Amino acid sequence: MASINVNDTTNQNQLAASRPLPPDQISPKSVVLRIVELKYVFQRNWKLLIIIVALGAAIGFTYDLLHKTRITYTGTIMFNLGGGSSGGGFGELGQLAGAFGLSSGAPDANIFVGDNFLIYAKSRPVIEKTLMQTDTIDGKDTLLVNYYIRHSGIRDKEWEDNDSLRAFYFKRAKVPAEYTKMEQLVMSDIFTRIGTEMAVKQPERKSSFMELSSFMEDEKLAAAFLTTHLKTIEADYQKKQTKKTREMYDLLTSRADSIARKLTGTENSLAKYLDQNQQIIVAQARIQENKLNRNSGFLTTLYYQALQQADNMRLSLIRETPLFTIIKPVYFPLYREVLATAGLQIGVACSLVLAILVIFLKETYRSIMRAQ
User: Does the model's pTM come out above 0.70?
Assistant: First the structure.
């Protein structure tokens, strides 16, 4: 049996104990030493840390005092589009599904289809039409754009340093072609601000319901803007969707009116001719009388046909007119949210990061000087 060398065993244990750890491993001893070292670093620099953090907190607190707390009111209207019929495709259901992006196949060029409707509802022409509407607020008929200027907060923020804009108001409702240079500037600023104060979305992907929301600093303004904007979208939508049918209806109505004028003239001529030729029995006179009777009867038939066609087109116009059904109207009181500034929190966080960086640079410089 071979004997075991005690000295070899001892040497092997010593080598194993003195063997360094791999670079990717940390020993418990090194962790403890680092913690103790951080303790000494904090003891040397705690005053500097407190001073920098206190300075950042003071700056953030001052910012909070100088900036007022903002209060917003959020209103929501949920609606559904339906009631209009159109030819081709799947009829009314196909049009309704396509208006909210539920249809399949290639994208439709219609501005009311899919995501186009969401963009259209927030477009500047539609919003300007809404702002130029008159609404009854506090028992007074008020131009919505003027009420927005007074109560939205735009005068105290965007126009704070411009006295001309702060005193501006629209004297009457106008179309964009009638805007002055100042009115164009005002409407541009208002549209930019409203773009951050409203949203149009589809609550559920499988649902055809749409949701129009606004979040403004005045409760009555938020509610009035929602209801007026939905009415504007509905009127503009119906006008565009039934444009061809309305043109045909106007054409048939104009044709019926033209035939009525000719029929009236022919009947007057016939009556006048009969009054002047009651005792005449000449065949030539009878021919003229028959001619006038024939023209009168023909025009009467055409007139009745034109009236019938116009009535049919009017019924078709009613059938094709899409309807906005309000599922959930605006309910008072609106949701109130207080948006306070976070200057103190941001100041403390930034100053803490700055303090750690300063202490790190200081300790690095200290270690370099000690090594020399």
Answer: no
Residue 341 DSSP code: -
Q: What is the DSSP letter of 68?
A: P
Task: Report yes or no: 263 and 305 within 8 Å, Cβ to Cβ.
Answer: no
Give CA–CA dist 292/181, Å, rounded. 62
Q: DSSP code of 170?
A: -
- Nearest to 57, CA basis, from 342, 372, 361: 342
Cα dihedral value 152, 157, 158, 164, nearest 10: 90
Q: How do 210-216 and 70-82 pair as beta strands?
A: antiparallel
Neighbours of 93 (CB within 10 A): 14
Q: Which residue has the tokens 């004297």?
A: 171
**Cross-strand partners of 324:** 81
- Among candidate residues 188, 214, 220, 310, the one with its CA nearest the CA of residue 260: 310
Domain ranges of the chain: 31-67+341-371, 70-84+93-240, 245-320
Residue type, 121: A
Q: How many residues does the chain have?
A: 372
**C-alpha radius of gyration, the chain, whole number:** 41
pLDDT tens-digit profile of 242-270?
A: 777 777 878 888 888 888 888 888 777 77
Give the number of other CB atoms < 10 A from CB of residue 240.
Answer: 13
